[in-house]
């Protein structure tokens, strides 16, 4: 006779947050999509070189922050635009629009990225492109999906058949970036850059790309995507383990068979 294990309060709480996370990504995406369609994505400022700010970034983050505060007032919140605190057992880490430069130029390659970190571990992640209406979602231990259907990383085994997306960061000297680019090309892989690191990671999770690498990323750009890749059968370099929540750091996510070669080319180790 089989025994059904009771659902713990922690599991119930996480299940509630999982549904909330999916719904939140969709509602935030609706705000971004309306602004995009109505041509309201013009930049209102620069936070740094090629780091654009639009009114929609702020509006989307206000929406997400207010929804979290209303539903889970005890949770922490860390947003790209308004900052926040990473104290406590649970924190929402949010990029209201990743790919703002694309958004501002009417290019439909941008997304809302939401991660939930519990006890130092990413347990929920949602990445939503509202123009394509594609929601990538993962809950730790439950796999990864796109619009509710399971996804897996690619089974690519040859570097001359691989497609790698390489992100660029102003925190890293151009010469270093160019050397990494050259080393990846020497492996035989194709390299592209689409200006949204979160979507780049989601595309590794669903097999559209074979790897994503960036020499420095902020946590709001990558935490949801790193969980997606792991839950889709891929491998990722350490991030939170190296104090990434507070300081950011290097990001590497890849299909298993090509991971070591891309690690050597980028200098990002799988510890």
Question: Could you list some keywords that capture this structure?
Answer:
D-Maltodextrin-Binding Protein, domain 2; 8 helices; 2 domains; 37% helix; 271 residues; globular; alpha+beta
Q: What best-fitting shape do the alpha-carbon axes yield?
A: globular
The fraction of residues assigned to DSSP E strands is: 25-35%
CATH architecture name of the largest domain? 2-Layer Sandwich
C-alpha Rg, in Å? 18 Å
> How do the helices and strands follow one another from N- to C-terminus?
HEEHEEEHEEEEEEHEHEHEHEH
Main beta-sheet annotation: 8 strands, mixed
**Multimer state:** single chain
Intertermini distance = 43 Å
CATH class call of the largest domain:
Alpha Beta
What's the number of structural domains? 2
Low-confidence stretches: none
Strand order within the widest sheet?
4-3-5-6-7-8-9-10
